[in-house]
Structure formats: C-alpha cells, structure tokens
Amino acid sequence: MKETKGESITLIEEKPSKKYNVPALDKALSIIEILAEQRNPLGVSDICKLVDIPKTSAFFILNTLEGHDYINKTEDGKYKLGTKFLTISSSILNKMDIREFAKPFMQSLMERTGFTVHMATLDHGEALFIDKLESQSFVKFSTYIGQRQLLHLSGVGKAIAAYSPLAVIEEIIKEKGLPQKTENTITSWSEFKTAMESIRKQGYAIEDEEGEIGVRCIAAPIYNDQNILVAAISITALRTELSIQDISVVGNHVKETAIQISKCLGYTKDEFPIN
C-alpha cells in the first residue's frame, strides 16, 4: 500500500488472466501443440475437434501458419509441422551452452552413482574437459575444467574417439601417438581400433586404470540434432569403489544419461550409432 497526504492508494498486482489472451493466437498455439504430439498429419476436421474450433476459424489460422512455414499441407490436404521449427530450434540450440542442458542430468548421474561426473569435447585432437561435478566422496580427483588429455588415456577421450570418423582419429593418433602412462595403457593402433569397436557395440567406453593406476572411468557420447558428436560424459571412480561386476550397471546409467542429454539437443534416436 502506498500512502499520500489525506488519502491512501492500494496498488494491486494482478496476475495474467485468460481474459487478456488473444483468442486466435491461443488457438494457433493449441494447433501447433496438437500437431507436435501427433505422429501423423491431421485433417481439418480432426484439428477442429481436438482444438474445439469452428472450421472457418481453423482455415484462417492454418493458412496463416502455412504462409509462415510453421505448418505444411500434405498432398491429401492434411497438416503437419513445418520446417520453420527446425530453423528456430537450431537457432536456440546454437545460442545455448551445452552445459546448460547437461547440468541437471549430470547432477542426477552423480547422485545416482555417487561418482564424480565429467564432460569433455574434442579440441585440437585431445579431450578438453568443459565441466565437472565433484561427488560427495572424501576422494577428490585432480581433473579440472580446461584440462586436456590424450584420447586413449581417459573415458571421455575413448568415447569421443569411438564415435568420431575413423580417418580423423587415425590422423590424430599418427600425430600424437599412443604414449604409455600405465601398464594398462593401449599403445597400438590395432588394439585401439578394436577397443573402439567394442565401445560402439556396448554404447559406452571403459577406461580401466589406463590413464592412472587405481582409477576407472565410464563414458558415453553426446549427439546434437544434426546427429553430430559434440561431447562425451563420464563418471570417474576409484577401482575400490567401482568393481568389475558393477561396470555394466553403471555403464548403462552413463549411457542413459548421455542419451537424455542428446535428446535435449535434438537427437531423435534411442541408441547411439554402431558403425
């Protein structure tokens, strides 16, 4: 309440109400949402029934939406979403940091497994760490955002390599080699190719004390709406915390999380490519 001399004025903040809606716009948005939910195109009669709108109004709205490429008409006179939405969604995705999409899923994976979670991208032939969520464990790993690792020495690196074009990875390995870090490190190209084939078959990469003794990682790729590999996500744990018997269970958690993030980026498949 705001008071002035000799009078008092009560300011009431009103919440948005349906009475302020633009009816035609409201119906247009409802039509778009209905078409998005349906697997197959819809005829005018079906749209009118689902949206509860007269045919005359429906035709005006549909023609307007079609004129702006928000919907397309099929040869048999039915309607489906148009390509304009692909343009808009791509624009939105390009303006947003992948970490914004991934953060809640990374948090969920950390809470579900109890392990530290990393995200990395391919940069100049190396795995570049772009995000990290530290677990509540008393053990803290020395990895940090901005750190780089050779592809064969980390879970994220192996996942990125496995799902990248083979010729690209072969050139990277020719340039950087496969230096040995531990007794478990993969040091030959033929062995690395075999490992990448196994990764694609199971949908996630395992790094078993190959970069550091006593540490295991499990990683999976992240794809965007163009079916392009953009990053990889991983969990990192001590060997004593992650047994061989638990790897498949945790691996599937990592894979599921990577698919969820990928779908937020517009990826439409339920599995990652095998070949």
From TrEMBL:
SUPFAM superfamilies: GAF domain-like (SSF55781), Winged helix' DNA-binding domain (SSF46785). GO terms for molecular function: DNA binding; DNA-binding transcription factor activity. Residues 22-83 form the HTH iclR-type domain. One of its GO terms (biological process) is negative regulation of DNA-templated transcription. InterPro entries: GAF-like_dom_sf, HTH_MetabolicPath_Reg, Tscrpt_reg_IclR_C, Tscrpt_reg_IclR_N, WH-like_DNA-bd_sf, WH_DNA-bd_sf. Gene3D superfamilies: 3.30.450.40, Winged helix-like DNA-binding domain superfamily/Winged helix DNA-binding domain. Residues 84-267 form the IclR-ED domain. This is Helix-turn-helix domain-containing protein. It comes from Paenibacillus monticola.
